[in-house]
Design brief:
The protein is mostly helical and 182 residues long. The protein has helices at residues 29-42, 47-82, 86-89, 103-112, 115-147, 161-165.
Length: 182
């Protein structure tokens, strides 16, 4: 079978898998790897596409990191406020440099006593109930969107729920089940 130009012959030796090809010059392995990376980037078979993909990947990561930082800012702000004295919490403009204190936590446990854990359990029960009710409502919808056929040709593949259950749709085909109305 003829080889393509520039292709290296396959080796049956399992110990040489992924190893750099032997060369007559004394190049270090990092030079060989760097040369291969450069060759991959500027090769005629899509070198520019790889560069664009790499920049796209950088922008994607930058966007994700920005999103995570912005999403965590309120949590960090709340934690920082818990270590400030009340005058620093309500200071305008906000104090960024402050002396941390445990005064708020001492006041929490001294005022509520053992009731704190009761309040905490109430919060846990309400949160768990909310998650369960949300799951009960969303799982059937997820099943329907995943497994039931939708007629995308009508341009209304995500129609409203009442329209899906009506006997007759406004168009000749029902947008949700693919049935002909009639």
């Amino acid at each position: 079978m003829p080889r393509e130009s520039g292709a290296e012959p396959m080796s049956n030796n399992a110990s040489q898998v992924g190893a750099a090809p032997e060369s007559s010059t004394s190049e270090s392995p990092s030079d060989v790897v760097g040369a291969r990376l450069h060759q991959d980037l500027v090769s005629s078979s899509g070198g520019m596409n790889r560069r664009k993909t790499r920049w796209g990947l950088y922008f994607t990561y930058a966007g994700l990191i920005t999103y995570v930082v912005v999403s965590l800012l309120p949590v960090v702000w709340a934690v920082l406020q818990s270590f400030k004295i009340p005058t620093d919490i309500f200071a305008v403009p906000p104090k960024w440099i402050f002396r941390p204190t445990m005064e708020n936590f001492q006041a929490l446990f001294s005022r509520t006593g053992s009731s704190f854990f009761t309040y905490l359990m109430i919060s846990v029960v309400v949160t768990t109930g909310t998650v369960l009710v949300t799951l009960l409502a969303s799982l059937p919808a997820a099943f329907a969107l995943t497994f039931l056929p939708f007629d995308a040709s009508s341009g209304r593949s995500f129609c409203s729920l009442p329209q899906c259950f009506r006997r007759s749709c406004s168009s000749s085909r029902c947008c949700c089940s693919g049935r002909t109305s009639g």
